[in-house]
Amino acid sequence: MLFSPTGVSECLREWGDLEKDYQHIQDTHRLYRVKLEEVTKLQSRCTSAIARHRKKLKELSSSLVRCEAEQLGRKLSPVEADSVADIRAAADERARAFSEMEAFLPKPNGLYLTLVLGNVNVTLLNKQSNYRALDALFNFLLVWYYCTLTIRESILINNGSRIRGWWVFHHYVSTFLSGVMLTWPEGILYQMFRHQFLSYCLYQSFVQFLQYYYQSGCLYRLRALGERHNMDLTVVCARVEVSMQETVEVYLGDSAHIPCQYNFSQADSLPEFVMFQWFVKDRVSSSRMRIYYVDENDDVADEGTEFSARIRVAVDQRATRLTVQEVQLSDERDFICQVNGVSAGAAESKTRLRVFAPPEAPLIQGVRAGISVNAEAPSEVATCEARNGFPKANIRWYKDKMPLVPSVGSVNVRTVYTVESSGLYSVRSTLEYRVLKEDKDANFSCEVSFLVPSAIRTVESAAVGVTIHYPATMVELWRESPKGLIKEGDTVLLRCHGDGNPSPTFNFSRERELGAEEDLDSNGNVLMLWAVSRADRGLYRCQPQDSTKLKGEVELKVHYLDPAVVVPKEAEAMFKGEDLTASCNALSSLKTSTAWYKQGGQIVGVGNTLRLQDATYETAGEFVCEVSVPDLPTLHTSGSIHIVVHGAPQLVGEEREVHLDEALGRTLNLSCEARGHPAPSIEWIFDGGPVTRRCFCFCRNSSGPLTCALPPQMWREVLSESGDHATRSVVSVAVNSDIGVACNASNRFGADVRAFSIKAVPLVTSGVPFSSAEGGRVIIVVVIPCLLLLAVLGSALYFLHKKGKIPCGRSGKQDISSQEKSAKDDIVLEMKNNAEAKTEDTVLLKTVNVDKNGTNGQ
Q: Is-cis flag, bond preceding 5, omega within 30?
């Protein structure tokens, strides 16, 4: 089934489609009926019009005859005579046209058809129907004839007739073909086969006539001689038949074997002996020349021929074979085998010996000079040569593996054949081709095809390219270096290229203001711009010298960054606690980024503006603004401003009074550093100076403060540094007793003082003083390992005691009272008043010792 629904919805959808088809069929049938009525009306109208026109033409002809008769012997003028002749010729032509028109119009039936068929119109309205009716009648007669013939032959066979089977079979085939033609519907295939079948029928009729004439004559003679049966209808005479190959193919220099087979049509009438003769045709005169003879007594090769020493013949019961050794080019000819059966007659056949020699590998050579696409005629592109082949080889040209077909004005191939002294052929082919620009990368090659035994071989040459000259159709100018954005100072290389070959020579120019062109010096197709500046930006062009329409353009943009301008300039003085705003700007073609750095590399601000608030001495120094271009990192500039902060000296450090402890007899370095502008001066004041401090000396077995002065030889200044905003001084003091020292820093805006109170600590058990905190840490570090050691020793003693290896007695005891007493004798007690004790405790807790470690290192 064409439609297999799977549900009701599909059935409903199919019914909807059928309804649409039905409506379409009704519309088509309605249109057909309308057209049919129109055709009927047109047929009637055309028939009536032809009848009226024919009647009027008849009346006009009669009028012309009557007018000519009424002239009373007066001749018509030449013009009138020509007019009358034209009218009569047109009338005759129109009558023939009406006959052709009526062939496609219905005609009324005659009396007989009207009586038999009534008013049924049997007129065939097209020419094809006319000849198809004749074909049907002819094919019907053929079917009837061959059917009756096969029936007659079947009856004769049943009654003992010795009709050959092939004779009856071909009658059956003819009957079938006639039936097919009779029932074949009208169409294109019928029209194509109709003429072939009619030709076949005519040819078959003629052959049957000849066959009948021959067979009847043979049968009459043979029956008269008593050699044939009375019921024989066909006869075959005994004769010899020879069969040979049409061609034998062999390579040059090889041996060729030419077989010749024979048999007799009547096996019961074989001859007593058979003779064989081999002939060869002369290449010039085409006359025969015998080269070998074989009969029951002789087997010889004819002397004096070019084959005498090179041929051999072998004979068996049903065949003979000729062998030609060392085949030469001249051996390519017809070899004839003749078999003579005496009473059976003689027969012969021939074989064409073909000799082949493959040519050498093809040699291709392209033209070295360039070929212009502007040439009007095809130009020589390449030559291809194949040497020493037989027979002639063929050369075919290819472009990019696609064959080139010769055509007028586009592709031309000239081929020259040369016969070498050896008889072999050399072929030389020249390709002439009208090149196009698209062929600039094309590869041309040739293919040599030649014949070999039972095949055709091809050898392809190497591919060659040709140089094609063509004008440029496009010019391109681009910046080759540097890559990326261009800044002032760069060297720019512009390169121009055109798609022509050879590459054209270019002129470079630059567009100035108001459209003016400035010619530039260049090196071939390269333009170098050294150390470009913003003045070099603009539109650059390159143009071939031989063309005014083609040009390449490139827009050159040179980016710049002017030096940074810092406001305020260079140096700016301000007082401590004041505010300052500085700006940094640089003109650039790109977006910039600004950062502020203080001397030393520390970033202090971002942006064009730097704001300094509540200035201190730390604010003083050099500020650098760094302006850079993010899109072009190599483009940057910088500016700087030096800030000076004026004010009274300020000592580094927050303490105004420093208490120090130092061992008696040691040397102590005291450092004092002050900031301010102008740079402050530092003055050291010891006891008795403008700043008075009391120096307390502690002596053993005595108490009470003493007022003492420090001898000048007991101190010296070891370091003195001075800058714009800071001054530093370091003095070395010998601690022989308690000392009071003051550091005084001053300038024109004020002064600042720091006091040092140094207490000399006498050496008791250790020359290295230590603080209470350090003593506590030492005690903890010592006590913990001792406790661990005592625990281990106690465990070991307890273990040995349990084992009984250590006796228990008083001999192991020790008197530690004497040791405690000796330790007590070495202790020195120092009595101090409360104030002195408090001051000493404070010093021990703070552990302030300026530059003590530095002094020891020095």
A: no
Q: CB–CB of 712/665 below 8 Å?
A: no
CB within 8 Å of 32: residues ≥ 6 apart? none
827, containing H or E segment? none
Interatomic CA distance for residues 814 and 810, integer angstroms: 9
CB 205 within 8 A of CB 163: no
**Look-up: residue for tokens 């040599």?**
448
For residue 769 the two structure tokens come to 């003083």
* Residue partners of 790: CB distance under 8 A and separation at least 6: none
Angle formed at CA 333 by CA 329 and CA 335, multiple of 5 degrees: 125
**pLDDT average per 10 residues of sequence, the chain (858 residues):** 65 84 88 86 86 86 79 69 83 83 74 65 57 77 88 82 78 85 79 82 82 72 59 58 92 94 70 83 85 86 90 88 93 91 75 95 91 89 95 94 91 94 94 90 94 93 91 90 90 91 88 81 89 90 86 91 88 85 91 88 88 85 90 89 87 83 84 87 70 32 37 73 84 84 88 88 59 51 75 75 52 37 34 37 32 36
d(C-alpha 765, C-alpha 778), whole Å: 15
> To the nearest 10°, the Cα dihedral for 302, 305, 307, 313?
-10
b/e per residue 597-625 (b: at least 16 CB within 10 A): bbeeeeeebeebebebeebebebbbebbb
Residues 6+ apart with CB under 8 A from 460: 362, 398, 445, 446, 447, 448
Q: Is 541 in contact with 551 (CB distance < 8 Å)?
A: yes
Whether 717 contacts 729, CB under 8 Å? yes
- 731-764 pLDDT, tens per residue? 888 888 888 888 999 888 888 898 888 888 887 6
Q: How far is CA 183 from the centre of its chain?
A: 62
Q: Which two tokens stand for residue 675?
A: 């900031």
* CA 672 centroid distance within chain: 80
The predicted model scores a pTM of 0.43
Question: Do 397 and 365 touch, CB atoms closer than 8 A?
Answer: no
* Other Cβ atoms within 10 Å of 229 Cβ, number: 13
CA 237 – CA 754 distance, rounded (Å): 161
